[in-house]
Write a structure and sequence with these properties.
Length: about 375
């Protein structure tokens, strides 16, 4: 066997060689997350800044990676670079992990001879964006989980518990109060057609997700409505503003022309409303308008942000000024998320109390009425 011959050349005499069994679950490794790409970018920037050749840097990073998928990705990029491709060309072959923004910035860094600085900026940018995403998920996860549990408990009461009370009520032979009758009717409906409700709910959610992906107008409407949701809307708005400023600051600082930078920024805002507004800004800037005037005309950007952009344009420090704006709105997101938990907690408690408590009252109401009559 070839493997045995290679081992003998290394002074190893194997007895028997068996193929290592693949694990039943997770054999191909964990999914590559944006945070993994940020860490990889930071490591690559540090090694290039230290004078390590690009191919060798990829080899060193690959040896330290435990995730097989990420390791294969790094090895594929290294092989492409080793065969003569530029780093941006190699990254472009993996659009699932490296978007247009990443590739354009790397291309600009290669052209200007400052690849290490650009990679460091990309890493900082990705870490900032992932931090904002994490905070928004944190803000929405708690209330969503509590509401889901409340719905599950309500369904359990309607399907399992209330039928037991209904059998007792039938033995009374008396008319039920209207509130109790309503809950009993809901229980009978859930027992007979509850599975239809579940299927309809899943189909509705899946339909909305698919329609948002395929229909730009519907996506715009949905994102505009999301910005108007009480309490949650301001968080989404500040997040979009922070991502707009941060992405534009990073691309402009890397030497990407403003018109090209705005095209890249549009897809990074995370909201179709701001994406369309950014594309409109790009068209206005391309025809000669200043950035601050184009932003003002959309009526989506706060006056403070527009004024700071104007100052940055006049002073020739647009990237630095936008970076300050991004930091400001990122801090605003942090503060709003912290306040959101304290605001939503009493609302959620009241919601659960009304739903579950109301059903308990409905079940005991006939008993209370009978006790009053006796």
């Amino acid at each position: 066997m070839i493997i045995k011959a290679e081992l003998r050349q290394q002074g190893i005499v194997p007895g028997r060689i068996r193929r290592k069994p693949k694990p039943l679950f997770g054999g191909t490794g964990k999914r590559i997350k944006p945070g993994d790409i940020a860490i990889f970018t930071r490591q690559l920037a540090t090694m290039i800044n230290s004078g390590i050749p690009l191919v060798q840097a990829f080899t060193i990073i690959s040896q330290a990676v435990e995730n097989p998928r990420l390791k294969k990705l790094i090895d594929d990029i290294r092989n492409d670079v080793e065969s003569g491709s530029t780093l941006s060309e190699s990254l472009a072959k993996h659009p699932s992990y490296f978007d247009d923004l990443y590739i354009n910035l790397v291309n600009a860094g290669e052209s200007a001879g400052v690849l290490d600085e650009v990679l460091d900026s990309i890493a900082s940018y990705k870490e900032r964006i992932e931090s904002i995403k994490g905070k928004i998920k944190k803000a929405l996860f708690y209330p969503a989980t509590v509401v889901a549990v409340a719905i599950a408990v309500t369904a359990l009461l309607l399907i399992v518990v209330i039928p037991q009370f209904e059998a007792i009520f039938q033995s009374f032979g008396a008319d039920l109060p209207a509130f109790t009758r309503m809950v009993v009717d809901a229980s009978e409906f859930m027992q007979s057609k509850g599975w239809l409700v579940l299927i309809a709910a899943i189909a509705a959610i899946a339909g909305i997700v698919q329609l948002k992906k395929r229909n730009q107008k519907f996506a715009h409407l949905l994102d505009r409505l999301s910005l108007r949701i009480p309490i949650v809307g301001p968080v989404l708005e500040k997040s979009a503003l922070s991502r707009f400023a941060s992405t534009l600051a990073t691309t402009f600082a890397a030497g990407v022309p403003l018109v090209d930078a705005l095209k890249t920024v549009a897809g990074a805002t995370g909201n179709v409303v701001y994406e369309n507004a950014t594309l409109q800004i790009r068209d206005d800037v391309a025809t000669g308008h200043s950035l601050q005037l184009a932003m003002q005309q959309t009526r989506l950007f706060p006056p403070m942000m527009v004024q700071m952009t104007a100052i940055g344009e006049e002073a020739g420090s647009l990237d630095a000024m936008l970076d300050k704006v991004a930091n400001f709105y990122e801090e605003e997101v942090n503060n709003t998320v912290d306040a959101l938990s304290s605001l939503l907690e009493p609302i959620i408690i009241v919601f659960i109390g009304v739903v579950v408590g109301g059903m308990v009252v409905a079940m005991y109401l006939p008993i209370f009425q009978m006790a009053a009559v006796m």
